[in-house]
Amino acid sequence: MDTAADDTVTDASGDAQDGPTGRRSAKWAARRPAWTRRVTLPPAARPYLAPLALYGVTKLVGLLVFAKLLEYAGDYQEKNPRFGGGAHWWDVLATWDGWWYLQVAEHGYHPALVRLDSEGLFTVQQNSVAFFPLYPSLIRMVSDLTGLGLYGSGILVSVLSSFVAAAGIYAVVSLLAGARAGIIAAGLWAVAPGAGVEWAVYSESVFVALAAWTCYCVMTRRWVTAGLLAFVAGFNRPTSAVLIGAVGLAALVTLARPSTRREHGVRGPVYAMVVAPLGLLSYVAWVGYSTGEATAYFTLQREGWAHFFDYGAYTFDVLRNLAIGRNDYVFAFSTPDLLSLQLVLALPFLIALMLRKRPPLVLVAYTLATIVTVLGTQQMFGNTMRYLLPAFPLLLAPAAALSRLRTPSLVVFFSTAALASGWYAHYVIFELGVP
User: Fold this and answer.
1) CA 326 to chain centre
2) pLDDT reading at 307 higher than 70
3) Can you give the chain as a three-state secondary structure string?
4) Is residue 200 classed exposed, middle or buried when 0-12, 13-18 and 19+ CB atoms within 10 A define those classes?
């Protein structure tokens, strides 16, 4: 007796499975050109589509607004191509620190400490070894492989790394507050103050990608991977010290508690603790060896760029000047400074909200150490927005709160934030200050 099983049987997706017609369909599907076949993502990758889409669209809107503002003002055309200028608006994205990174990518390093005949703020000639090698090495590698040129490769590395960072932020936040909050956190990182450098020739995107996934690996007991990622991060930025310290502290606490020691084992945490600092230490040691002065890197930062840890004295000086409407301090830029002031005033509130969520130790240590390092260092106060960009765990509580909103409300919020970010996160830093 014939049944329906003898005819074409389809699954939930409508694909033919059995029967003569099904076999003919299967043969035709096998002969179809590759470009006509439906591309399917691995199941593990599908949860990342929404956060990456939100991040990418939001960033793109902000960048377009930035471009329109640059074209409207036209000031960049009159500036030095090294200091915020260029023939086209997109050239601005490779100025200031971007110029140094491209120099390293093209010419490599020439370590030297050249003393200046000066008693002012800068007593040592600036040198490219102040810029860590991972990012320019990636630029050079991509340029050699693709032929894009150094500028195009630098932008490509930053953009791709920013998506990896957004995915890492989603992974961390979704573990603690759910997938919806993770998606929103990725979008918030796109419109965070200072986010303009995420798609510029700057190393922030590479660093946050490494930091977010390092924290995720610690949270999910992947100690070996966490140690390796922290090791690589040590070749990217000096602030990798806070990430390395957070990994080491989390490993120590894990080993100190019998319950977690039995659960996690000993080898993984010990490996992470030992390997994590080697990248940072080896680069600083190489700079010292190459220049003939063991502390050359720190001397260069202090006397060549006027950046050094002063226990918050500079930040306090800026805050009291801004409070009374004065700018009697080093590196004064009114608009970026006022925006950074608002962010600094919001920090206690953001920290308290983050702690209420009871995040893992690695996130708490990483975030607090980042904030202490930024506020305790003399550097351009207007760039506090950019320097705090790696403190992504601060997005945990706002993302969790926003996740309770309905989709139409979130669309309005992110549309408004994306448009505004073209000014406060892009134009303010690149054109009204020094990124």
Assistant:
1) 33
2) yes
3) CCCHHHCCEECCCCCEEEHHHHHHHHHHHHHCCHHHCCCCCCCCCHHHHHHHHHHHHHHHHHHHHHHHHHHHHCHHHHCCCCCCCCCCHHHHHHCCHHHHHHHHHHHCCCCCCCECCCCCCCCECCCHHHCCCHHHHHHHHHHHHHCCCHHHHHHHHHHHHHHHHHHHHHHHHHHHHCHHHHHHHHHHHHCCCCHHHHHCCCCHHHHHHHHHHHHHHHHCCCHHHHHHHHHHHCCCCCCHHHHHHHHHHHHHHHHHCHHHHHHHCCHHHHHHHHHCCHHHHHHHHHHHHHHCCCCHHHHHHHHHCCCEECCCHHHHHHHHHHHCCCCCCCCCCHHHHHHHHHHHHHHHHHHHHHHHCCCCHHHHHHHHHHHHHHHCEECCHHHHHHHCCCCHHHHHHHHHHHCCCCHHHHHHHHHHHHHHHHHHHHHHHHHCCCC
4) buried
Residues 303, 128: contact at Cβ < 8 Å? no
Position 365, amino acid = A
pTM for this one?
Answer: 0.90
Alpha-carbon dihedral 316, 378, 232, 113, rounded to 10 degrees: -170
Q: Which residues pair with 16 in a beta bridge?
A: 10
Rounded Cα distance between 344 and 391, Å, is 13
pLDDT exceeding 70 applies to what percent of the chain?
91
Q: How many Cα neighbours within 13 Å face the side chain of 181?
A: 18
Backbone phi, psi, residue 190, to 5°: -70, -25
Q: How confident is the model over 199-238, as pLDDT tens digits?
A: 999 999 999 999 999 999 999 999 999 999 999 999 999 9
Tell me the per-residue pLDDT of 255-298, one tens digit each, with 9 for 90 and over. Answer: 999 988 888 889 999 999 999 999 999 999 999 999 999 999 99
12: pLDDT strictly greater than 50: no
Tokens of 402: 């926003």
Residues 329, 318: contact at Cβ < 8 Å? Answer: yes
Which is nearest to 302 in space by CA: 37, 121, 173, 46?
A: 121
